[in-house]
Amino acid sequence: MSVHRLLTAAATAPAALHVLLQPDPVGSYVLTSGRLWSLVAALPGLTGVIVGGLALARAAGRIGSGTGRRGAVVALAAGLLCAAVGGLVVAAAEGGPGTGYGIVGGYLDLVLGVIAMTLGALALARSRRRVTG
Predict the structure, then answer these.
(1) Are 108 and 38 in contact (CB under 8 A)?
(2) Is the pLDDT confidence value at 17 over 60?
(3) 8, exposed or middle or buried, with CB in 10 Å at 0-12, 13-18, 19+?
(4) Is the dihedral of CA 118, 119, 125, 128 positive or negative?
(5) Of the candidates 116, 96, 89, which has an alpha carbon nearest to the alpha carbon of residue 33?
(6) Where are the domains of the chain?
(7) Terminal-residue alpha carbon distance, the chain
(8) Exposed, middle or buried by CB within 10 Å (0-12, 13-18, 19+), for 114?
(9) CA 132, CA 60: separation in Å to the nearest integer?
(10) Residues near 25 by Cβ (< 8 Å), separated by ≥ 6?
């Protein structure tokens, strides 16, 4: 090996080592653990919103003949689970949107959980009013 090649390799080695040691940016379509937990938490949240809406309609007497109490309790539990896991994802995130920590999905889970719990609470209150009154 010539001295010229050796000096050229030595000059470019720190730059190449610097590039190799840099963390790879996370792509938009890469499913990281934070994004996975956000998706897992969204499932009971969506279920809670749907069941809570149906329970609210049932408690109001729009569909079915039941009180909607069981659906209201399911919506409350699913919303609580969704909001809790979403809060954990947001608390564990070390970066902002696009970093792969699932922070956007975590905030979405918090919103879905609150909506599901609100629908469940309204359906439960309306079913109690309907039974007693």
Answers:
(1) yes
(2) no
(3) exposed
(4) negative
(5) 89
(6) 27-132
(7) 95
(8) middle
(9) 14
(10) none
Q: What is the pLDDT of residue 21?
A: 45
Nearest-angstrom CA–CA distance, 70 and 30: 38
Alpha-carbon separation of residue 2 from 6, 14, 72, 107 (angstroms): 6, 20, 79, 59
Residue type, 127: S
- Cβ contacts of 4-12, under 8 Å, gap ≥ 24: none
- 70 burial type by CB count under 10 A (0-12 exposed, 13-18 middle, 19+ buried): middle
| Percent residues over pLDDT 90 in the chain | 40
Chain centroid offset of residue 50 CA: 17
CB 11, CB 4: distance < 8 Å = no
User: What's the mean pLDDT when you consider all of the chain?
Assistant: 79
pLDDT value of residue 67: 59
